Structure formats: C-alpha cells, structure tokens
Amino acid sequence: MSTTVEKFSRSLPPEEVELLEVVRDFVERRVRPVVRELEHENIYPAELIEEMKAIGLFGLSIPPPWSAGKVSTTCYALVTAELAAGWMSLAGVLGSHSVVSRVLTLFGTDEQRQRYLPAMASGEIRAAMALTEPSGGSDLQAMQTTARRLGDHYVVNGSKAWITNARQSSLIALLCKTDSEVRPRHAGISILLVTPGPGLTVSRDMPKLGYKGVESCELFLDGYQAPASALLGGQEGRGFAQMMNGLELGRIQVAARALGVGTAAFNAALRYSQEREAFGKPIWRHQSIGNYLADMATKLTAARLLIIHAAQMLDSNERSDLEAGMAKLFASESALEAAIDAMRIHGSYGYSLEFDVERYFRDAPLMILGEGTNEIQRNVIVRQLIARGGLPT
User: Fold this and answer.
1) Looking at 67, 101, 126, which one is the last position of a domain?
2) Residue 1: pLDDT above 50?
3) What is the CATH number of the domain that holds 315?
4) Is 393 part of a structural domain of the chain?
5) What pLDDT score was predicted for residue 157?
6) How many helices (H) and strands (E) does the chain have?
C-alpha cells in the first residue's frame, strides 16, 4: 500500500487496512485495464460489480447480525475513494445502496431489516433511492409524488429523475407525500420501500456528460400499489428526517468519490509533469506548473482530513450534517479544480481520449451537484454554525 494511504489508515484496525489493500489491488488489476473502453462505450460493468460483491463491498455499511462485513465509516470512505480513483462509476454504484442500507438499519422495522439487509449485504439485492423529481431539484419538500393509503396498501403516483441503479435494483427507497395538506410540509413525507411491479416504469436512461456505465434513469409511478408494510418504520410523516440522516453518510460518500477522482487527476498530472520536458527541463520545474501541483496536493490532503473527521463524527453517533456538508463541499470543489488543472498540465493531451484526464474532467462536476448541490451544502453549513454557536477553538 502506498505511503500516503498507510499514513491515513494508521488508526484503522488491521482487517480494515487489509480490505483497503484488497480494493486497491482490485482497482489496479481489474479496473484500470478496462475502464477506458467500458467508459467510452458506456457499458454496464457487470463483471466488475460481481467481483465487488465477492469482496463484500455491498455490506460495508450494514452491521451484524445482517452482515459480517461492517466497517468504520472512515474505512468505508477510503474504500470509496480507492474505487473512484479507478472509476468513479463503480463507487457510485455503492452510494445510494449504502444510504438505503443506513436508513433501513436505523429506522426499519424488524421485519423490514430481516427481509432486506442480509440480501443487500451480499449484493443479491441492489438498492436505489428515489428523491429527485423533474421539477423539484433540491427542494425535496416540494415533491409531487404521492402515496394514498387505501386499506392495506398505498396507491402511488408521480415521477422521479436521476435515479442511480434504477434498472439494476430490486429495492427502491421512494420519498413521497403521504399527506399533502399537513404543515410544515416535511411532516407529510414518508419513505416507501418499493420493488419492481405493475405501475412502476423505468423509462429512459438520462444522457450524461460523465458517470458512464451506470444508469441514471427516470421513474414513473402510475397507480403503483405498495403494501402498507412497505412504509419504512411503520409510521407516516417521518421520511424526510429519515432520509436526511441517511444523506449524512451519502454526503461523506460523495466527498470520498470526489477525493478519489481528484487524487487520480493529481497523480496523473504529477507523473506527466516529470515525464514531459519543455525548454530543457521537466515541466514541474516551471513555477506555474509547480504551483498547480502544490495547490492541488494541499487541497486534496485537506479534503481527505475533512472526510475522515466527518466519518469519525458519524461513527460517534453525533449529528454530523455540518461536518459531512463541509467535507462534501470542499472535496467536490477541490476535485473539480484538480481535474481542470490536470488538464492544463497535460496541455492538448489532456483533451485527448487517449488519456484518463479527460474522464476525470467529465466525472468531477457530478460531485458538486449530487447528494445536494454545493449551494445547498452552504445553507446546511451556515444553519448548523448558527445552531452550534460557531466553531470550537
């Protein structure tokens, strides 16, 4: 394992360090040789995902007795970063699955946990979360998807957009309104655990700049019937708070994806700057290039520390929306800067499909938008700063 990874994993137990080594070997041996072809052709990476199941990656956020593979959030974040450094789309596959795992673990009924979590841990069940709507964006409380209780079932109508894992999942955590009249609006929002069936249509794969190979789809629900037992936790009106809790892990995961992409871009630029010569010397020796590299490394190191801090807060069972928001905000902005600067350092080759830098440039913007835009993150951060009375000295 590299010196950098060893330094940041010293506090992890030996079995978690070993897992990081396994993931890094998987990325180097299996992902990097094929990623360019799969990504450019937008091919679903079925074989790689099967190997991720075999490693146990789908159970990393699921605790005993439903999984034997639970790790600390710090380890989970570093695993995510390793995957994203190889191909961000593979890390994305774990994102929504892990958020659903968390909300089920924390808020599911005993029957719901036993029904879904063991199969989710093995990867037999892949989970998706359906929050965003075509006209709603970041304003989740303005959603128009409704679930009306009729006897022993709910009738669901509405639409969702940008749903990762939509075609491959057999479980969807659907955020919907079970009461459209109650105020405040979030008190009428619930989560239904829905499975594919009549009335639920996965329509088109939305065309994307990056994040290739993994589907992001529109969903339509037209008279879809879900049993009353599908209501997460068995009580209506708690879905918004449940999902916000799950998104604390989701934002750490997105931050870790950004760290992986940014680090891969930096490492590519660092190597190229030592190989490429201009005016009789390696280009890293030119101050403008050296300054780019110094700034990239500094910001990515700070991003890693913010992610680890947020992960430790989450594992201590303290509220971590401030820390997760900071990590997601800073890591995603740093990754985007790193991707752009790596392209600058590569010059015209950074624009070529023959170099991985162009993929990092296309993948990095997703993290400033996903799991709440960075404008939303700033709102979350300042509200928590006011509530907490500032930062500790």
Assistant:
1) 126
2) no
3) 1.20.140.10
4) no
5) 97
6) 13, 9
Q: Which residues pair with residue 176 across a beta bridge?
A: 190
Output DSSP code: residue 234. Answer: G
Domain boundary among 236, 252, 272: 236
227 and 268 inside one domain: no
Burial class (CB in 10 A: 0-12, 13-18, 19+), 135: exposed
Same domain, 97 and 41: yes
28, 218, 371, 375: the catalytic one is: 371
Give 105-140 pLDDT, tens digit per residue.
999 999 999 999 999 999 999 999 999 998 876 777
Among the ranges given (4-13, 77-86, 372-381), the one the predictor scored with the smallest mean pLDDT:
4-13
In which band, very low, low, confident or very high, does the pLDDT at 159 lie, cut at 50, 70 and 90?
very high
133 catalytic residue (yes or no) = no
Averaged confidence pLDDT in the chain: 94
pLDDT reading at 335 higher than 50: yes
One DSSP character per residue, 142-185 reads: G---EEEEETTEEEEEEEEEEEETTTT-SEEEEEEES-SS-SSG
CA distances in angstroms from 132 to 11, 128, 135, 215, 317, listed in the order given = 37, 12, 8, 15, 27
Range of the domain at 93: 3-126
Q: Is 51 buried (19+), middle (13-18) or exposed (0-12) by CB count in 10 A?
A: middle
259 and 244 housed in the same domain: yes
For 196, what's the count of Cα atoms within 13 Å in the CB-facing half-sphere? 13
Give the separation between CA 58 and CA 129, rounded to whole angstroms.
15
Same domain for 274 and 245, yes or no, is yes
pLDDT in tens, 248-286: 999 999 999 999 999 999 999 999 999 998 899 999 999
Structure tokens given for 260: 């992986």
Q: What's the structural domain count of the chain?
A: 3
Considering the domain architecture, whether residues 74 and 19 belong to the same structural domain is answered as: yes
Task: CATH number of the domain at 215, please.
Answer: 2.40.110.10
- Across the range 307-330, mean pLDDT stands at 95
> Which residues share a beta bridge with 174?
130, 192
Task: Report the C-alpha gap between 179 and 185 in whole angstroms.
Answer: 9
> What's the pLDDT score for residue 8?
60
Question: Are 176 and 265 in the same domain?
Answer: no
Give CA–CA dist 24/180, Å, rounded. Answer: 47
Both 145 and 223 in a single domain? yes
